[in-house]
């Protein structure tokens, strides 16, 4: 569901805005490149309503580590969704994760 919402495309198209609400060094920086930041991000539609919240690790050069953000919250037309499981679990809805 989260992937189908296509935040990156909607952001580039000007349909959403992005706000970094927290940015700090990761708790366990040993496994990450030097200068990486742990960030919480809000996405808003053009009315200002928060439609998604994510977490990401962003390298110093701007690259998102792992290639995508970790969804924490999604609101589609008033239907609010959160992940059904922890990050270490895999389900059929996690389309692009390898098993």
Helix content: 10-25%
Biggest β-sheet strands, sense, barrel: 5 strands, antiparallel
Instruction: Let me know the number of strands.
Output: 5
Number of helical segments with 4 or more residues:
2
Biggest β-sheet: strands ordered side by side in the sheet: 1-2-3-4-5
Morphology:
globular
**Oligomerization category of the chains in this entry:** single chain
| Order of SSEs | HHEEEEE
Which range does the strand content fall in? 35-45%
Q: End-to-end distance, in Å?
A: 19 Å
Number of domains: 1
Please give the radius of gyration in angstroms: 14 Å
> What's the overall average pLDDT, rounded?
83
Given helix and strand content, the structural type is mainly beta
Low-confidence stretches: 95-99
Verbal overview:
The chain has 99 residues and is mostly beta strands. The protein has one domain. Helix content is 10%, strand content 37%. The chain contains 2 helices and 5 strands, in the order H-H-E-E-E-E-E. The chain has helices at 2-5, 7-12, and strands at residues 16-24, 37-45, 50-58, 70-76, 79-81. A 5-stranded antiparallel β-sheet has the order 1-2-3-4-5. Strand 2 and strand 3 (50-58) form a beta hairpin. The longest helix has 6 residues, at 7-12. The radius of gyration is 14 Å and the shape is globular. The two termini are 19 Å apart. Mean pLDDT is 83; it is low at 95-99.
């Amino acid at each position: 569901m989260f992937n189908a919402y296509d935040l990156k495309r909607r952001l580039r198209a000007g349909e959403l805005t992005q706000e970094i609400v927290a940015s700090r060094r990761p708790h366990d920086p040993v496994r990450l490149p030097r200068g990486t930041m742990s960030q919480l991000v809000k996405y808003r539609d053009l009315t200002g309503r928060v439609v998604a919240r994510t977490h990401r690790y962003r390298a110093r050069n701007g690259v998102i580590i792992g290639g995508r953000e970790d969804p924490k919250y999604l609101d589609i037309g008033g239907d609010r969704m959160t992940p059904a499981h922890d990050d270490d679990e895999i389900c059929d809805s996690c389309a692009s994760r390898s098993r």
